[in-house]
From TrEMBL, chains A, B, C, D, E:
Record localization: Carboxysome
Taxonomic lineage of the native organism: Bacteria, Bacillati, Bacillota, Bacilli, Bacillales
Name the UniProt record assigns to this protein: EutN/CcmL family microcompartment protein
InterPro entries to which the protein is assigned, alphabetical: EutN_CcmL (IPR004992), EutN_CcmL_sf (IPR036677)
Keyword terms, alphabetized: Bacterial microcompartment, Carboxysome
Chief site of localization: other
Amino acid sequence: MQMGIVVGRITATRKDENLVGTKLLITQPIGLDGQVLPNPIIAVDTVGAGIGERVIYVTGSMASRAIRNKDAPIDAAIIGIIDSLEGTTLGG
Amino acid sequence: MQMGIVVGRITATRKDENLVGTKLLITQPIGLDGQVLPNPIIAVDTVGAGIGERVIYVTGSMASRAIRNKDAPIDAAIIGIIDSLEGTTLGG
Amino acid sequence: MQMGIVVGRITATRKDENLVGTKLLITQPIGLDGQVLPNPIIAVDTVGAGIGERVIYVTGSMASRAIRNKDAPIDAAIIGIIDSLEGTTLGG
Amino acid sequence: MQMGIVVGRITATRKDENLVGTKLLITQPIGLDGQVLPNPIIAVDTVGAGIGERVIYVTGSMASRAIRNKDAPIDAAIIGIIDSLEGTTLGG
Amino acid sequence: MQMGIVVGRITATRKDENLVGTKLLITQPIGLDGQVLPNPIIAVDTVGAGIGERVIYVTGSMASRAIRNKDAPIDAAIIGIIDSLEGTTLGG
């Protein structure tokens, strides 16, 4: 999984029928210090996340386990809201 | 999923038989501001996308859920046309 | 799999129900010389790893094999603690 | 899928028994303008591709759909020969 | 699949029980000219590879097809020893 921050929401009228009713959030990966990393992704929200919240997201085929519709073609899902983060910055 | 823009179309006479009849679109990932990112991919169109349109695409094994032929060896599919995008640019 | 070092822990009250009870560790990939590489990930601990320990982690759908709950939407798991590493640095 | 150009062939006597009889081609990803991108991969040829040809290749678990042997541990396969490519270069 | 060179071996006493008995080799990807690329991975050896040998390795869920234990959480496996490589360097 990765740490991310929700930065936007996408509207798409014409889409795969299995995506109807999903909330599609634009999420950018973040580093340990909260710095925003490049390459935003679109993730299906499964925990009621909002813009500006720091979240945990899963990518690849495992993302589909987070939603009820087992036919939906999704490769990213938000599966948690980060409360806190205890850690050490080691650089890198 | 990722945001992309359709930039071209590929013709291939000699190909896997399960790809016959698919529309193969060259799609480049885009960032929040619409800027085009490197490394175009080839995605199977499932929503009637055209060149120049901003789309949502899925990659990996989940892409195969977007098409009817469950034997097709595909790892990318366009699954939505972006109407609008509300968001905040956080840099990165 | 990749070599990593555990650098932190994440707390998330609101999360996928299949993640309840898992220990979510922030792990950074490391190189042959132990140098820390960018892009930390969040991995489910399955071997009792602690902060500062060098670990082996697996990513993608195979990570879910490391935990008992086969419905959990996880894409990274710590599956070993590195005792020692014999090798040659070839640069790169 | 990605666009690539076949640049070589690999011979391996000692190999997984499910790879016996496969043709393993070194393929480099290419961009819209045909420029060669870094990081060559090894793909199983399924369409009779030759060195110098521009091809479509699929990666990940879906690659295994392109071959008959469903036990073969492959993560990349050439599934088409590019005839032509109509498109617009948008930079990136 | 990718071309790599075996550069080391990892010992891990505390590990997933399905990894017991596997040989875990640190492998670095290599380019066409044999130059070593960054980001070493840990791969399960299935062909008797040794340090310094040039190998073919597979990543992702397909790697698990190369070993007998179908419950092992592995995402990389060495599946061939490179005898020779005929090719053209196109740069990139």
